[in-house]
Structure formats: structure tokens, C-alpha cells
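The data are quoted verbatim here:
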Amino acid sequence: MLKDFRDFIARGNVMDMAVGIIIGAAFTSIVKSLVSDVINPVIGLFTGGIDFSNLYVNLSDTEYETLAAAQEAGAATINYGMFANAVINFLIVAFVVFMLVRYVNKLKDLAADPKAAEKGDTPPPPPPADIQLLTEIRDLLKKKK
């Protein structure tokens, strides 16, 4: 059983996954910093600095001025403002990651085909299989003549 476990861990896909998780964890701090330190201040300029984090529904009988006061008193609250902030941050992070992955994929494509980078366009797609087959038959018939 120990040998099977060692073989499982030594497989390439498990090691690749482990490296991906480690890099992803390190990359998370970069993306969080980009979102909180660069993108959110710009969004704050356009939204007038609206902060949803203090929006909540108080489920207790006592009124509280802020969410922090309600939480300190131990009141039951539904923190829909915090949820809204989490959703907004997720969408921003997802968009930033999408743009980064898109950029990296373009770089990989350019590295794979440097001539396409010189032309500035992508190569045409190959013809369908039936057209390729007909072309080969035509070429063979030409050779026999």
C-alpha cells in the first residue's frame, strides 16, 4: 500500500497539480494587491466611494448604529453588504485573472509560431479532411499520367 501511495504521489499530474496550487497561492497575493491597491481605488472614484460593508439586516430587537456595533453586541445580523463586496471583489479578481491568462496564452501562441507574429495575423485553418483527401487523390492521378 505504501508503494502504491508513493507511485501515486510520484506521478507527473499530481506533482503538476501541487506546483499549480503553490504558484496559485503565491499569485493570490499579487492579484489581491492589484485589486485592492490599483483597481478598487479607481472604481471608488466612479462610484463616489460607496462602501457596502456596513449594510445589514438586524434580526434582534435592539437598534445598532453600525454593523460593527451589532457584531460586538453579539446581535444576529444578515450582512448583505459584506456579501455584495465579496461578489464585486470576486468579479474583479476573475476578470483580472481572465485578462492575465488571455495575455499569457497570446504570448504562448506567438512563441509557438513566430512567423505569425511577423505577419501580424493568424495562419489560415487547415482545409477539411475531405478536401485534403481529394487533393491527395488528384496529386496521385497526376503522377500516374
